[in-house]
Amino acid sequence: MSDIQTLIETLKANEEIARKLFDIEVSILSSAHSDDLFEKLIKLIKSSFDIPFAWLTLVRDNPIPNLGEKFSNSYWLQHHLHSLDSSELEALQTLDSKPMLSNSMDELSHLIPSHYFGEVRSLAVIPLILEKKLVGAIMLGDSDSERYHPELGTFHLEQLSVKASLCLSNVISRERLEYLATRDPLTGLLNRREMEIHLQQELERCERYQASMSLLFIDCDRFKQINDQYGHDYGDAVLVHVAEGLNHLVRANDRVFRFAGDEFVVALANQNRYDARHVRQRIESYLATNPLLMNRKLVPISVTCGISAPSPEQAASVKDLLRDADHDLLRQKRQRDDHSDSAFQGVGE
Questions:
Q1: Domain residues for 256?
Q2: Residue 252: C-alpha distances to residues 144, 180, 209, 245, 266 (Å)
Q3: Is 262 noted as a catalytic residue in this protein?
Q4: For 98, left (φ over 0), alpha (ψ -120 to 50), or beta?
Q5: pLDDT digits (tens, 9 = 90+) for 147-164
Q6: Of the residues 182, 215, 239, which one is the last residue of a structural domain?
Q7: Residues 81, 58 contacting (CB under 8 angstroms)
Q8: Which of 142, 262, 324, 328 is catalytic?
Q9: Residue 118 and residue 223 in one domain
Q10: How many domains are there within the chain?
Q11: Is the pTM of this model over 0.70?
Q12: Over the stretch 121-133, which tens digit does the pLDDT of each residue have?
């Protein structure tokens, strides 16, 4: 083949690569959320360039809002995400927005997910940059040790790095605005407006499919005393501690909301009143045995939980749900106070 023919073939190949990169960029630009962007990006790269192994490596303390929750809802994304501590990214810190090619897998084995061990023999590491900081990389692997030889050029991979980083930056900006609009700034829980939307959807689902649901209305006991005795910083820390405990105790398809002040709401999908009682017991027991430790002080925490659980055939509104749960909460408090008074009187007799 002559030099001119070789040049023409090279230009054609570069044009084809550029077209594929453009198609990928157009597709991920339509992504509204980071999980959608990552899934599209990895799938398109694999299919467009016939790459057998592709995944995403991210720093665990990355600035992407609510990423863990998004990935937990997608098995595919979980399978294609590899998380590392900042200290484990030393091999990537030298990238400085430049892709890295390597066929020395011993040096980069910690960057390869366990399910790909022994199969990846060459690797392309394409950095993802957010706010001038390395937050992770797109990882492309092949069983051919020569595919990503370190002496090969990286021009097209640099383009992919820039395009993916810019698209991710745009998506993160939108997600941050959405997060601020839907979340309580102190606890990170969904706010009251989101609660009303979710509960209305749950009620409609229950009516349509004759399904069950229940709701817990949760109040922190003696919260004013905590603020008065320890200070408002401790009060805020108690609310965060309770929020984290609730998130830890409920299932993935349940929802936890901050209602107002020291009040929380938990929506339990497909669970009746009997199920809700067990959840209530678990929550009250967990928080009673896990006090807040702050500045070497243990702050005891207890909560009271009211339950509302409409029957599938019952036409209920969000207002009805909250009112019934609040009434049950007050009833629980009265019963506990009456029991305490009786016990105290018994000691004095």
A1: 192-335
A2: 40, 22, 21, 14, 12
A3: yes
A4: beta
A5: 998 888 888 899 899 999
A6: 182
A7: yes
A8: 262
A9: no
A10: 2
A11: no
A12: 999 999 998 888 8
